[in-house]
Amino acid sequence: MDKIRIIGGTPLVGTIPISGAKNAALPLMAASLLTDDALTLFNLPYLADIVTMANLLAQHGVSLSMHGDGQGNGYGNGRGVSLDASNIHNLTAPYEVVRTMRASVLVLGPLLARFGAARVSLPGGCAIGTRPIDLHLKALEQMGAEIELLDGYINAKVASRLHGADIQFEKVSVGATENILMSACLADGETILRNAAREPEVCDLAYCLQAMGAQIEGIGTNELRIQGVDRLHGCDYSVIADRIEAGSFAAAAAITGGDVELLGVRAELLHSVIEKFNEAGISVTSTERGIRVKRTGDRIQGIDIMTQPYPGFPTDMQAQMMAMLTLAEGASMVTETIFENRYMHVPELTRMGAKIIVHGSSAMIRGVPSLRGAEVMATDLRASVSLVIAALAAEGETVIHRVYHLDRGYERLEEKLAACGANIERIASRQPAKVEAA
Ligand code: UD1
Asked: Ligand 1: residues within 6 Å at CB?
């Protein structure tokens, strides 16, 4: 398995193009199942999860064609892909795929809405918590689906067509909102989603569905009203920039005392994150091309953070902010309210010299003057990138293991950081020695 080696201490200075958002791209790809026309997506990041979703859709019968590079927001390397679901021959999403990527469950709603049946492996627990999908299933039942859990699979069917329903989500869930939003577009009658997630990635999906002919009101609010239509058509759609990738590089710039411009991202998508950066003494300003992040003072100031559904502070930025706060002046308190086990980075940061104590869902971070490089590893995507951030500011060498987590969500991470002066390299796993023919 590949590793990443970082020698810390160099301030990041330069520009970084931000890729299309993984968490917007995955549901958009699943939305291709809703129509027999081609859906063409631009600014798609090239990531392991995107390849997994492409493979999942292909085994359902979607044919995919790539359009090469350079069709993104003008700054990234975004690819274009056309997805044609006119020949679906398999309604099963198998365990082998779903277990590697939970977002696979997003095919459930579209398959059921268009074909009246779907069989999707139940995603298991994952490193950051139990992550049930009860809200998805309950809402589909309200829309007339019959659901049976058997042999580790969700078997869902509907007698004729899903019907509209008034759905009150008990909890704000990004995945459930997306799955049910897609289903409701082809249901008979009106569906109301109350307490819906309003993350920018949910809005991106809703705007694309509108471009495909869906009737959706309330985009950007926590109440979505969808009038079902008989069919959707194809469209061309460009994926929004990844606000979490941008936030991660912002934290890296801040911890190293750097000055970077993040290209292609809009400040309003990062409002709650920027507010916290400002409180910590980091200046974030809008530029014509994106945002500029610069540390103003000598040291970062300790702050308190609580994760919340959008527009609150995103759970997907919690680990990166914590890494940055390990070097703050004074203490910080981080409280995680979305996932129950999202502190796997803490023991690894501690190995680098950070002072962090976890009590239940809160972590107290006492800022230290410096971190030391070490060998570290993490068990999820954002935890792994938090170790990269810490390593960029640590004295000496850090080796990060299990780089495949980073490859799931960060496109060309080493290249983007190295272009801003970071001393970072990927160490490829050793290939078996070649046997020369005699
Ligand atoms: C999505 C993102 C993930 C991000 C998360 C929170 C994708 C592919 N993934 O995940 O990166 O960390 O949003 O912003 O976009 N819950 C239930 N029952 C359900 C569904 C969720 O209890 O049926 C709970 C979860 O356990 C969690 C909370 O609701 O505590 C939020 O989960 P959710 O928003 O659904 O996260 P994901 O959609 O899985």
From this structure: 23, 26, 102-103, 129, 131-136, 171, 173-176, 197, 201, 315-316, 338-339
- Write out the chain in H/E/C secondary structure: CCEEEEECCCCCEEEEECCECHHHHHHHHHHHHHCCCEEEEEEECCCHHHHHHHHHHHHHCCEEEECCCCCCCCCCCCEEEEEECCCCCCCEECHHHHCCCHHHHHHHHHHHHHHCEEEEECCCCECCECCCCHHHHHHHHHCCCEEEEECCEEEEECCCCCECCEEECCCCCHHHHHHHHHHHHCCECEEEEECCCCCHHHHHHHHHHHHCCCEEECCCCCEEEEECCCCCCCCEEECCECHHHHHHHHHHHHHCCCEEEEECCCHHHHHHHHHHHHHCCEEEEECCCEEEEEECCCCCECCEEEECCCCCECHHHHHHHHHHHCCCECEEEEECCCCCCCCCHHHHHHHCCCEEEEECCEEEEECCCCCECCEEECCCHHHHHHHHHHHHHCECEEEEECCHHHHHHCCCHHHHHHCCCCEEEEECCCCCCCCCCC
CA 129 / ligand 1 centre spacing (Å): 10
pLDDT at 209: 98
Check pLDDT > 60 for residue 436: no
Note the pLDDT tens digit of each residue in 343-376. 999 999 999 999 999 999 999 999 999 999 999 9
Please choose from 174, 181, 204, 337 the residue to mutate so as to test ligand 1's pocket, defined by most ligand atoms within 8 A of CB.
174
235 is catalytic: no
Q: Which tens digit of pLDDT belongs to each residue from 309-342?
A: 999 999 999 999 999 999 999 999 999 999 988 9
C-alpha 103 to ligand 1 mean position (Å)? 10
Distance 169 CA to ligand 1 centre (A): 13
Structure-model confidence comparison of residues 395 and 432, the more confident one: 395
